[in-house]
Amino acid sequence: MPIVEKIPLLPDQVPSAAELNKVYDDLAVATTAIDEDNGGSNWLTYAHLIDPATNEPINKLYFAAYNGPTAVNYNSTVFQSMVSNTGTITEVNLDYFPNETEVLRLHMSGLVGVPTVNVDYDFVGANLGKPNYYAFRIMVTYSDSGGPDQNFIAGYWGYSFTTNGLNRYDTTSAPTGPSINWQTFQASTIVKYKGTTGVRQYKKAILQVAVFDNSNTLSVVRQSLQAVRARK
Amino acid sequence: MSKVFTDIPIHNLQQVKPESLNRNIDKYLEAFNGTLDGHNFPLESVVTTDFFLPRDSNSLQDTAAGTDVFQRGTSYSTQAYYQTRRSSSFEPTITDVWTPCLTINLDNDSWSKGFNLLTEFTDFEDFPLTFNAIEGQLVGCATIDFEHGTQVFEVVVSDDPPLSGSRSRGFEWWSEWGVFVNNVLVARSGLIFPRRHTVQIPFTVPVGSQQVTIDVRFITVTSRAQGSPTLEVTSSEFNIFSAEIWVRNQIR
Fold first, then answer.
1. Which has the least CB within 10 A, A42, B62, B168, B234?
2. CATH architecture designation of domain A57-230
3. Hey, is A41 helix, strand or coil?
4. What predicted TM-score, i.e. pTM, was given to this entire model?
C-alpha cells in the first residue's frame, strides 16, 4: 500500500518549496495505487457492489411464473415444458457466458390442482407402483462456442398421485387411492460450470413435467421457476 | 472518518504557523495511510469486475465422475457454494426418475426408530457435506425425493376357501426429515404422510470460521414393522430417489 511520509515543519524553520510540495507530490502518486490496506474496516457497503453500468448486484435473479388460476393438464410420459393456460412456456432466458467454476442456482415450485387418477399401482413386474408417479425436471439449454443448442438436466424430482393409504384398503373395489389434491411441489439445485470461461453460453432454463402412465392426468394450477447466477 | 476537509483554512497574506500546516497535512495523510472508509469511496468505485473470479473451493474437492455421491464447491469474493447429491437420475449408474437409488426394507433391513443417518445406508456413506466455512451465514436447502408407505401387498383374506387379495399399506405411517449442521438439528420437514414426495427443507444458521458437516436424517414410523401373521408377501419399503444438499456460505 502507499505510505506517504511527511517532513515535519518546525517553528522558525524555513521550508523549501520542494519540502512543502513533496507530501502533495507523493500523495498524487500514492492515490493511484490505493489498495485494500488503505481502507478501514467495514468500509464496503452493499451499495458499492452494484455495477452502475448494468445495475446488477453480485447475484442476478431470473424469474418466470404462471400464477394461475386456470389449471393446465399434463399426461405425457415424455417430459414436456410446463406452460400457462395460454401456452406460454415457463422458462427463463439466461443468455450469458458463465465463468469457469461459476454456479447457477435453480429453484422451482408450484401447486397441483385436482389430478385425474385411473391407475396408481401395477401389482406385477418391474413397474410395481410406478404408475402412481409424476415428476418434474429443470432443463438448461446451452451452446458451446456458438454451436448448436444442447441441453442438460439440472435435476429430477418426483411425486405420487395417491397415498395408497387407508382408503385403498381393498384394491379390487377401489381401483385407485384418493388423489392428493392441492399439494405443492418444490425443489432446488445448483449447477457448477466446469468448462473454460467464454466458451459456454447458457441460454434458457425450462421447467418440465412428465407422468409415468398416460392414463393419469396431472393438473397444475400455478408454477414458477427461478434461476440465480452467482456472479461474485 | 468521513471525507477529509482542511482543518485550518489558510488565507492570503495570513501568517502561517507550522502547526497549521502540520495539522492539515496530517489529516490528509491519515486518510490515505489506512483509514479510508465507505464515505471516501463513491458507489461506482467498486464494481463486480473488481472481485476475483469464482474458483474451485480449497476445502471441498469436486468428485470424479462415476462416484456414488456427487460433490461440488466454488468460492467467490462474497460467498461460497457447496453441494452434495446422490440421485438415481445421475449417480453413478443412471436409471431414471422412476427408479429409487436406495430401497430400505423396513421389515428386514437395519434401521432405527430415532433419526436414521443416510450414511448408514449403501452408497450414501460419502453423502455428508463437509467443508471449511468462513465466518458468516450458511443458507441452503436440502431436497429429498423419497417414498414411503405406498406399497400394496398380498394378504390372506379367507381361510376356507384359502384366498388372498391385494391390500394397501401405509395406514398410520409418517416420516420426517431433518437437516443437521455439525450434529445439531437446524430444520425439519414436519410429518409427511404416506406418498412419494420431494421435500425441500430450507435452512439458515450462523457459522464461524470452522469445519462444517451438513447431512440429512429421517424418522419413519410404520405399523407394518410391528408384524402381521397373515401376510403372505412382506415388504415395507422406504425408497429414496434422490437426496441433495446445497449451501451458500455468505461471508461478506
1. A42
2. Sandwich (2.60)
3. coil
4. 0.82
